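Help! Submission page says 'invalid entity' but I think these are all valid:
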Amino acid sequence: MDITVGGRRVARRAYGFDEVALAPGPLVIDAKDVDVSWKLGDLTIQCPILASSLDGAVNPALAAEMSRLGGLAVLNLDGIQTRYENAEEILQQIADHPSEGVIRFIQSLYAAAPVRADLIALRIKQIKANGGIAAVAAAPHTAHKAAEAAVAAGADVFVIQSTVGTVKFESSTIPEFPIAEFCKNSPIPVIVGNTVGYQATYDLMEAGAAAILVGVGPGHICTSRKVLGIGVPQITATADCAAARDDYFEQTGRYVPIITDGGIRNGGDISKAIAAGADAVMLGSTIAAAKEAPAPGYSWGMATSSADLPRGTRIQVGISGTLEEILYGPAHRDDGTMNLVGALRLSMGSLGAHNIKEMQHVQMFVAPSLPTEGKSLQRSQGVG
Amino acid sequence: MDITVGGRRVARRAYGFDEVALAPGPLVIDAKDVDVSWKLGDLTIQCPILASSLDGAVNPALAAEMSRLGGLAVLNLDGIQTRYENAEEILQQIADHPSEGVIRFIQSLYAAAPVRADLIALRIKQIKANGGIAAVAAAPHTAHKAAEAAVAAGADVFVIQSTVGTVKFESSTIPEFPIAEFCKNSPIPVIVGNTVGYQATYDLMEAGAAAILVGVGPGHICTSRKVLGIGVPQITATADCAAARDDYFEQTGRYVPIITDGGIRNGGDISKAIAAGADAVMLGSTIAAAKEAPAPGYSWGMATSSADLPRGTRIQVGISGTLEEILYGPAHRDDGTMNLVGALRLSMGSLGAHNIKEMQHVQMFVAPSLPTEGKSLQRSQGVG
Amino acid sequence: MDITVGGRRVARRAYGFDEVALAPGPLVIDAKDVDVSWKLGDLTIQCPILASSLDGAVNPALAAEMSRLGGLAVLNLDGIQTRYENAEEILQQIADHPSEGVIRFIQSLYAAAPVRADLIALRIKQIKANGGIAAVAAAPHTAHKAAEAAVAAGADVFVIQSTVGTVKFESSTIPEFPIAEFCKNSPIPVIVGNTVGYQATYDLMEAGAAAILVGVGPGHICTSRKVLGIGVPQITATADCAAARDDYFEQTGRYVPIITDGGIRNGGDISKAIAAGADAVMLGSTIAAAKEAPAPGYSWGMATSSADLPRGTRIQVGISGTLEEILYGPAHRDDGTMNLVGALRLSMGSLGAHNIKEMQHVQMFVAPSLPTEGKSLQRSQGVG
Amino acid sequence: MDITVGGRRVARRAYGFDEVALAPGPLVIDAKDVDVSWKLGDLTIQCPILASSLDGAVNPALAAEMSRLGGLAVLNLDGIQTRYENAEEILQQIADHPSEGVIRFIQSLYAAAPVRADLIALRIKQIKANGGIAAVAAAPHTAHKAAEAAVAAGADVFVIQSTVGTVKFESSTIPEFPIAEFCKNSPIPVIVGNTVGYQATYDLMEAGAAAILVGVGPGHICTSRKVLGIGVPQITATADCAAARDDYFEQTGRYVPIITDGGIRNGGDISKAIAAGADAVMLGSTIAAAKEAPAPGYSWGMATSSADLPRGTRIQVGISGTLEEILYGPAHRDDGTMNLVGALRLSMGSLGAHNIKEMQHVQMFVAPSLPTEGKSLQRSQGVG
């Protein structure tokens, strides 16, 4: 498995979504009979799709709608919603801004307004008022303060999220974030991320995480890879973390689900992420393309607002349909961005998987997408 | 052969058409002396090319012409032909529809008109009236009713076709389709598909299939792979199924031909499919590009009409020539879409293969098509 | 080395020009001191570059100029030059023809005029009159007649060339071409091609070939691969044939040079072909881009004229410079299409190879050209 | 590790920047606490980034500014600066020249004006006058004369640079350059390059080089690879040379840093180069895109001026910001071309590397950039 890339330097081969495909076997199951639910702590969640805590993906209204549809949306407590009372107006300004200079504009909006505890409370109450599950996220350095306000306001799930989330952190000036203590003291489940790698995942599970977000720079040409050189393709990242989850479960009896987050573009990627070992997936742009999304038609990453080193820009995601159509169809396009749950059911059924657990073990092929085939297939049969 | 993609997750490497090439050896045979015939049950068929049961590829007239030319065309009994008396008019409407909204239009046409038994009979009689072999296809859930009408009307070959066709099917509401019983009771040969994998193929052979259609989501960027994550590149799919065919033959003495269906774009792919183990191939778009095709210049997949989850759209295939020119030339283009039988003969001759059986064992290379070479070869010698 | 692509089907991995690169070692040699000559039978040839027998590459005048410059050009005795007295006019018509229908036009020109023995004689005399070496080519089925006329007219080298040239040929109507007898009886050296593979090469050497042309469908997206599925990337083809040459030499003491023919686009490919084991290379389009070329700015393959199954079309090659500039510079472009001998000398010097023989053993890397890097390098340092 | 590409020909697999990615582990370090300094002989240099001796990257003013910012810029003593008193004017003319014919124009400018000793002195004094470290480069055949003038004028570091720099050089007319003697006699540290390969690197270290420039034709489609067939992807080149450095250090106790030079386009590549074993990196186009660069917005390679065989042309690099912004930010773009030191710090911190030495051993993945993913990620989450 180790490759010598030169001299004595070794590297492991990692695989991304476009390099694998799933293959049916001798059994097919009716898609209607497939069970796609998963568990977060004691909570059984009907839909294994989470909405990512991006400014452009989740506002309180969308979070409530996502809950109604059986999924889970995470609101960013470090983002525009908790910095601006008139968040919707600000988000529209970002959407309307010309591409030229949009990173600078987002940087300035973040720099100009600090996070307000009262807005944290307000947003959570807005979610709860509409009957939603309030899942909220903050970075480690803001987590204590944010969690206090959030729990007080009735939050149901807390997410500690940073580009690379680990138990161990060294700094001459910033104290290490006490993840284990935080999880232990939290009255609500704590999801931690993002991570890759067996050991880091195992450490976070030991620290008490209720679930793990998997994915660091997963897109091959995503900005973390370009800016930092960092990025692990998601099939490998997911499979590595799944091994840690399974071992931790075997050793402790506690099952900590892993959620593949980043780089997922369509139903095919969702199926592949689960087949690689995920219990659920987290989507950003695909949700940001919902009619109900906060910045209709646009999305940007959490690191776009970085004052010194933005790692992502605003992208146009278009509008594909209502959130309900995106999750449950009907789809009127064939690109895998609508009816995601229907697609997952059909995929699992075709692969003979009764449930998520069995889906984690269907037959997988390494089958690269060749660019030339793409072009040629403009003329292909489309029978599939 | 097994690759660890991460943790304990393993996957097999699969290969597609663009990743392999064939190599001549020390013997060349005159193309005129090459035997390209194959057997379907007791029937010897002169041309190893079948026309796929797409709306845009096969109508009764084309089926008859295909028969006259020594091949076999399959008419879809679940498609436009058996839903609309004025099928040609409807097909023209689909061809004329703007790209925007065409999936929705096809969905609505299918939803508006159920399959009619009288039209099944009519279409088959139209094929027979023109001297054609009537090969007809239906999905498992419509197969019983369709087969009754079809056999009564004089059909010669029946095809049970679904995205993933298996012996084993589980559902809480739909009874399992009794393939073995169906094959046993059918007065005409029953082709079953589509399948991939050794075991599923072997199961279908044991169930009595007269031939097997091989191919599930074969194109790398085809819609099944995007929507469902499912897809096995055809060289591997074909070789896997060929192994099942050979073993089944050795164990039972019955030879069940396998037909590679999907992703074939030109004569080169036909040669490669057979070299991977196929006895024949099934073409969709290439046939839909015939002057005689039902929706001149256009084609779409069977799953495009899916009400909830379309996996393919209408594509422009152009018009390359008459069906006879497509099969037997002369070709006036160099892209491998015309004179397919002539190309296969020349390929087999150059590779020293006297017949299909020997062609299944010529030397094959794994030789990826590099995108950059493609561009560079715009300036290459073209000697080839 | 054998890869199982599925079931029991095995294939070897083959490598093309864009997949390898050469690496310097601890010695550099002055480019001026490098010896690039090679031997064809008793003849020492100063420049290891041959011009391919394409209509668009070689006419009598270019053949003479090529000889003057130390190389060798092959005139096609089955092409336009020996079918039309006013060949230059006809070639200009092909160059002037619109792209649409140009294959049909070339087909018609070949069909309308048979090869004439008097024109064979005329063309050879034109070459000799200008002091050139007359190397001429014909297909096996025309070789006897063509060779008689050619030898009588003073030809110096004869080339028997077909898409796949082998000693063994089976046909119910056409007698096998007696290569061994032909070589034995020929008063001039006989080059045979094209071939790939150890055994086929060894057979041709045993039959008496003076040199072997290596290459069958070498370009990855070239038309033979699309139309027939046939094609062996040139690094592998060359290395396989080089092994046969070395073994044949060891066993017989006769050294039969191999000439890599097809798919070479620039100086880099020439260096790589020789590093893979070639003694010389044959160029088509690169020569067709000379100011002196017969159809200025255009080229097409020998199989473009095929009445039934063209495998190549007319391509625009542009005009890069005089033949002398193409071979010896100075170059005023950086794409490796000019000063080919200068580039080869500098390459060999940088790699520490004193001569062609040593160049066949320099360090080679498998180093694929990634398409994304290409784009990125628009902004790279260009230091190289 | 050895691959048989055909016959008995073997080749090693080499890896480039776009084929690898770095992966975090269980420890994260505060970016502010990371140590990015390195040593050149006795000199500790704060910033591991050198500016390449390209006409378009370094003039005396930029060299001084680079020094002020903690890095090192190398001035080319064979370039425009030492051939023309009015260098800035000439550089502007190159920048203003239309693309058509620009190689010829650069060739003519070099041919028209020889290097002048007085200009060497002038340029060095200009650097020193502004408080800069004067690092200057010359090719082996001009090195003696240039070094004499340079040392007299107060140069601090001398670089002997050629496309392939080795200890061993054979020529019938040019004497071998006595690298060992030159290094021994030089009053200032001598950096030598460029090289690849364990043995060549070891030889240069034994000869007394103070540091080694690593990289020969590193870009996959760079012009050395197209023109000469030569080029080693940088991850492999760097790792090979790093092994030589480590062995040489273990055997002699002298640590000779290696500097990866060529093909680096962004912060990600810098991180990867160091992770492959580099102690520092050298940048060309990225520096040429500084506001202070000599030919604003443009760059060209040292081999572009070659009279006979240019291997590179003028490319448009754009203007990304001031040199300080390029090195230390803030960045207002997300493509990894600004705040390079900040990005390196964040990368090292995220990967748990306290310093350059530890960064050379972080976890690396072979993770190819798939072209199709690139396109798809236009719609990806951008969370990274």
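Support: the input was valid. A stray whitespace character was the problem, and the output above is from the cleaned input. The mean pLDDT of chain D is 93.
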